[in-house]
Fold:
Amino acid sequence: MNYRPEGFLFRTIENQKLISTADGLKEAMKRDLILEARVTMCNSNHDLIVELPCGEGIIPRNDGAVGIREGKTRDIALISRVNKVVCFKVRNITIDENNRVKATLSRAAAQEEFISECMLKLSSGDIIDAKVTHLEQFGCFVDIGCGIPSLIPIDAISVSRISHPSDRFRIGQYIKAIVRSREGERICLSHKELLGTWEENTACFHAGETVSGVVRSVEDYGLFVELAPNLAGLAELRGGVNAGENVSVYIKAIIPEKMKVKLVIVDVCDECVPLKELHYYISEGHISEWNYAPAISGRKIITCF
Structure:
C-alpha cells in the first residue's frame, strides 16, 4: 500500500464507496483496508466520533492514536482531531433498529501498520510526501503518513532564511520532504534540498529583468531579497523598506563565481501577496549528497544523507 498523510484518501472514489454502506465497511474489514472519514466530536471519554454516510463510527480512546494506551501520547492528539479527517481500520459493525450502522474503528491500528510497513523502512535521503499540520517558531510539523508526526526545523525549510515557517507554508498544504535522520520511530526531516541548487535557481533569472521578491533581512550594508525559496540577492540600501515586505527588484548582475545576485529595489508593494507554489527540482526517490554551490565558485555547501 502507498501510505499517505491523513486526508489524502478521503475524497477518493474507493474510500467514499466503502464508507457509504454497511457492505462497504464489511468489505474493508475483511480486506483489512485503511479508510478515512471526518471526526465530528471527541466525547468526555476522549473517544472520537466519526461521521459515516451510512451511520456513525467510534474510535475508542485507546485506539485513537499510537501511544495513547501506553501514556506516551497526550490526549490533545485526540481532542485536536475534531473537524479533521482521520484514517482508521474497521474492527466491528452493528446495525441498529433503524438500519443505521454503528462501527467500531481503530486509528492506532492504521498507524501501527504504517510504522511497520513504511516508516521503519525509511532511510536518510528518502523523499516522501507530507502534509503541514501546524507551525511553530522553531519549525513545521507535518503528517508523514496516517497521522504520524514529524518535524522540519526552520533552518531546514529553505536556503533563504525566514522568520517563521508561515513565510513558506500554510496549514493543510501537501509538500515533499526528505528524511534527514531516523532513530527508531523518531524521524527528522529536511526540505531545502528539494528546492534546487544556486545554479538551478539562478537559471530562472537574467540580468536586466525586473522581478518580484521578498525582503528577508535589513543589514547595514544592504537588503537581502528572496527571489525564490533557495535564492536571495543583495539589494542596495533604501530607506523605509522593512523585512517581510514584498518588493520589485531590478537584477543588476548574476555572478556565479561569487554566488552573488546584485539587485536594486524599484518599488515596495503595499498589497498582500499570496504564498507562491513551491517548485521541487527533486520530488521522488533518494539522494545521498546535495551540493548547493555552483562548481565554478569553488565552494562546497553540502548536505550528506
About this structure: The chain has five helices and 17 strands. The chain has three domains: 13-116, 124-194, 198-268. The radius of gyration is 24 Å. The CA atoms of residues 57 and 218 lie 54 Å apart.
